[in-house]
Specification:
- By secondary structure, this protein is mainly alpha-helical.
- It has two domains: about 160 residues, no CATH class; about 80 residues, no CATH class.
- About 70% of the residues lie in helices and about 5% in strands.
- The strands form two sheets. A two-stranded antiparallel ribbon has the order 1-2.
- The relative contact order is 0.07.
- Keywords: Membrane, Transmembrane, Transmembrane helix.
């Protein structure tokens, strides 16, 4: 009986290294690209800082001139409201400029991280890549990058607080109107921050079912909250710390046959739902690891 010959290409060590480096570079390029896009968005958002400086300077001149005309013979003493407004605004300005400064620094770090350094072999190139990635993890560069948008968001909240303080001293009507708008915006911000945590603790996985196409491998899930931002992650991390160190919450989990294990990021929890969906009699939650 004749057997068909199967032609398998000879896989050399060099081709294996090239294939490995191609996959690794594709992953690293995508990761760095996402970081750079986030930084570019942050820098665009922080760009109006010069306009804010001009506005604050103009307001300061107007207040100074008004005070000089009214009481030229008295020493100028700013009101407590003026002190609070200037403190909020200038603190907001400093945080905004700081986020922009470190955004530029992070782009420099990323450029150096992905610098194409000539090496003698693919193995040496891969070793260099692993050294740089391990250093990035050890020095928590990804956490530093995640903190930059939060810094800018805090600056915005401080600026809005200063606006409300200013309007309160001027007239009640604009204060009420702007307060409603600010309250709505801040409310949405807070809601999108806490909803992922609430969703993760209330998420339920339905029992598995069989079908002709997917056999027994497909499971039905409730959807997961997609509002996964850095600040939402820090809120989830904080709540998980409370759960792990609170005997009362731990006892409530025990009564519902749930136990807490650890998780490093959002994606780990999503994969956990797919790989190990919990049954009705035994529920497993993954919590973030301590930084």
């Amino acid at each position: 009986m004749e057997q068909g010959s199967v032609h398998n290409p000879q896989v050399t060590v060099e081709r294996s290294w090239e294939r490995l480096m191609s996959e690794v570079n594709q992953y690293d390029d995508g990761l760095v690209k996402n970081w750079k896009e986030d930084i570019d968005t942050l820098l665009v958002f922080a760009d109006p800082a010069d306009t804010v400086v001009a506005l604050l300077t103009q307001i300061s001149k107007q207040l100074s001139n008004a005070t000089t005309l009214e009481t030229p013979q008295l020493k100028f003493e700013p009101s407590s409201s003026s002190i609070r407004i200037n403190t909020l605004w200038f603190l907001s300005l400093v945080l905004s400029l700081t986020s922009g400064l470190f955004g530029l620094l992070c782009k420099q770090w990323l450029r150096e991280h992905r610098r194409d350094t000539p090496a003698h072999s693919q193995a040496e190139t891969l070793a260099l890549r692993e050294l740089r990635n391990a250093s990035f993890r050890e020095w928590a560069v990804s956490s530093f990058l995640a903190m930059l948008p939060i810094l800018l968001e805090v600056a915005l909240l401080l600026f809005l607080a200063g606006i409300l303080e200013l309007l309160w001293t001027l007239h009640l009507t604009p204060f009420i109107v702007i307060s409603i708008a600010v309250g709505f915006s801040v409310g949405l911000y807070v809601m999108t921050t806490i909803l992922p945590t609430i969703s993760m603790f209330s998420l339920t996985v339905l029992p598995s079912y069989a079908s002709d196409k997917f056999n027994d491998n497909i499971r039905a899930f409730h959807n997961i909250c997609p509002y996964k931002s850095p600040q939402a992650w820090w809120f989830f991390w904080f709540c998980s710390k409370i759960i792990r160190h609170s005997s009362l919450v731990q006892s409530l989990f025990a009564k519902r046959n749930r136990h807490v294990v650890r998780m490093r990021d959002w994606s780990r929890f999503d994969l956990h739902l797919i790989r190990r969906p919990y049954q009705a009699e035994h529920t497993s939650w993954r919590m973030p690891v301590d930084p």
